[in-house]
Amino acid sequence: MRLLIALAMGLASWWPGTALAYRPFDSTDAAVADKGTFEVELSPLRYRHDDDGTAWISPTARLNYGLADDWEVVLEGQAEHFSNMRSRVAEAQVDVKSVLQEGSLQDKPGWSLATEASVLLPGINTQDGAGFELTGIASRRWDWGTIHINVAPELTRDQRLGIFTGLIIEGPDAWPVRPVAEVNYQRAFNTDEEFSVLVGAIWKLRDKLALDLGVRHARVNSRPDEQIRAGITFDL
After folding, report:
1. Which 3 state secondary structure label does DSSP give 167?
2. At 16, is the secondary structure helix, strand, or coil?
3. 194-209, pLDDT tens digit by residue?
4. For residues 47 and 30, what is the distance between their CA atoms, to the nearest angstrom?
5. CB environment 136-147: b (16+ within 10 A), e (fewer)
6. Partner residues linked to 147 by β-bridges
7. Which overall architecture, per CATH, does domain 2-235 show?
8. The whole model's pTM is what?
9. Domain limits of the chain?
10. Most confident of 15-19, 123-127, 213-217
11. Cα 175 from Cα 30, distance rounded (Å)
């Protein structure tokens, strides 16, 4: 299983031509890839500093495939490299997302609603267990901007119950470069608690090509976790 995860991550990161949760966020949106289309979200290099030390994350990849109308399947994960030459594959998971109600993200009136079921896979040299997460997603776009709301109960990889909540706010979709922000709260009961804030921007170069940059500050059990994220999203 771990070898398959590593091979799949390698394919995702070297796939030619058009990807984490919705880049550069931890939360996601109530939209899916078009039927028969691959959508790639790729970060060639990220930086993180926390209790494990300084890590260069290369790559972070998310490969979405439009399985059918309003359905997509997703493979995602990241390779982390530390200054003591340790490397690991973390945050590997397989997701299935479905749009339950088409709305403003699909150019229709009202809220776009979706659900995403995620199998949290074991990593390599970290995260030995497996878990499950079920996310409810609500998105709406106005002239002034867009919001995405996520709520997700989960069973963590170490078999503890937890909860994740997230809010994304984006600037006007018509702007070629739009400011973005995200606030998240995540808790595994009786163990870890995390609160994070991200600010950044998404530069839409053309319809199916966008660059992103974000700076994320988190407190994990009151300890700091700093990240710089940059990447690209495109369709094949």
Report:
1. strand
2. coil
3. 999 999 999 999 888 9
4. 28
5. ebbbbbeeebbe
6. 140, 169
7. Beta Barrel (2.40)
8. 0.87
9. 2-235
10. 213-217
11. 20
